[in-house]
Amino acid sequence: MGTFRVNVMVSNFNEPGRSATLPLLVDTGAAYTVLPRDVIDTLGARIVGTRRVRLASGQDEEWPVATVLLALEGQELPTLALVGPPAGLALLGAVTPRSLHSASILMGGDSSR
To answer: CA 73 to CA 8: how far, in whole Å?
Structure first.
């Protein structure tokens, strides 16, 4: 299927006015959405815990988790996002579209319309 990106509005869960629209790489092999640390800091999103992650290299790490609002295909949903390295990749994991019942995103549908 290849890789593709979707534009997603990401907002601070407690202050939805603090938001940014980002192109997220759809990664059906990733469970959680990943947002770079600088995006989380700009939004002022609160870290709510940590999750153990296994990187593509096979290395295990502990990453912070923040609660954010994601708007995708006309729907808005609070979701957990792993906090990745600053200026790192922004990924849309499989849990968020499934929570929105948005199979078209996972299948490469265009959500920018």
So the answer is: 8
Q: Number of folded domains in the chain?
A: 1
Number of other residues whose CB lies within 10 A of the CB of residue 45: 23
**pTM for this entry:** 0.81
Query: Is 111 inside any structural domain?
Result: no
Residue with tokens 């954010």, as numbered in its chain:
68
User: 9 in a domain, yes or no?
Assistant: yes
Q: Which helix (H) or strand (E) holds 42?
A: helix 37-43
pLDDT digits (tens, 9 = 90+) for 12-64: 999 999 999 999 998 777 888 999 999 999 999 999 999 999 888 999 999 99
